[in-house]
Amino acid sequence: MKELDLLKKDWQKSDNSFAQVSENDIYKMIHRKSSSIVKWILIFSILEVLLWTFLSLFSNIDNYLKEINHIELILYFDIFNYVNYAIIIVFIYLFYKNYVVISATTSTKKLMQDILKTRRTVQYYVWYNLGMVLLSCIIAFTIAFVYNPEMELVKDKIAANNIAMLITIGFLLLTSILFIGLFWLFYKVVYGTLLRRLYANYKELKKIDL
Asked: What is the pTM of this model?
């Protein structure tokens, strides 16, 4: 925020009449930066959906369920995917709405409220996605362990050996934690960076509003 810092220095050095002009300039700059950040949040969320949709084309769950003779589960997976996509679309709509609202905001207090509202929406979005990753891991391991006939030998070994059971549980937990951790890191880098910049704008607006 080098431009913003320069404006603030000029504002502090000048008299009251020029301070008012500088305050307006600072607000306009923060407004423009905040609008740009929210726009990028919207863009990243759309790109994320497109990416997962593209990757899903290479992993046909329906064929896997047919191979293990459990085609009755296909319907449940379809419902699960439709509900997930519907919720994601709602989040994208909220991101778009936040972008439109922030772009049209004309007061400092309202912009501060809109920034906080946008941050909460993004945080809910991230937590929802992490929750879905955890749920997907549980479902995937359950299907592989319970419904896959090839796992019968493994289940027999686990039933006869407590150590094998502990190793299996530990492996599943470690794999889930690693998988969720990778997603958390992705969201931390992408959305976390944008949210930190957005909150920095909020703090600057708070100084103006004092």
From this structure: 0.80
Distance (Å, whole) CA 91 – CA 122: 8
Q: What is the dihedral of CA 131, 133, 137, 142, to 10 degrees?
A: 60
Q: Is the confidence at residue 4, as pLDDT, over 70?
A: no
For 5-59, the pLDDT digits (tens) are 555 555 455 545 444 546 777 788 888 999 999 999 999 999 998 988 887 777 7
176 and 137 Cβ atoms separated by less than 8 Å: yes
Q: At what angle do helices 162-209 and 108-142 cross, to 10 degrees?
A: 170
- Residue spans per domain, the chain: 2-209
Question: For 107, which DSSP code?
Answer: S
What does the alpha-carbon distance between residue 44 and residue 209 come to, in Å, rounded to a whole number?
Answer: 31
Q: Residue with structure tokens 């509202």?
A: 117
Contacts of 208 (CB under 8 A, 6+ apart): 23, 26, 27, 108
